[in-house]
Design brief:
- The chain is mainly α and 76 residues long.
- It has one domain.
- Helices cover 64% and strands 0% of the residues.
- The radius of gyration is 13 Å and the shape is globular.
Amino acid sequence: MLRNSSPFESQQIMRRTEDLISAASNRYRITVQVANRAQRRRFEEFEAVDDHRMKPVLRAIIEMSDELTQPEIIGE
């Protein structure tokens, strides 16, 4: 059985995804925002061979849910 190398459990990812969707006024729009961030992340990772253990879409979900729950990390 292959193990997922992501440091986050699938249940935690699902909870974060549900939090994002429930906080959004438009499900389609939040989905597009996650996809756009993941795409930007993928190109950033391609240029800087850094950490390829986590897929860009998972990283985007985690980052966006962190921004939702911890607005102080966004900066003013």
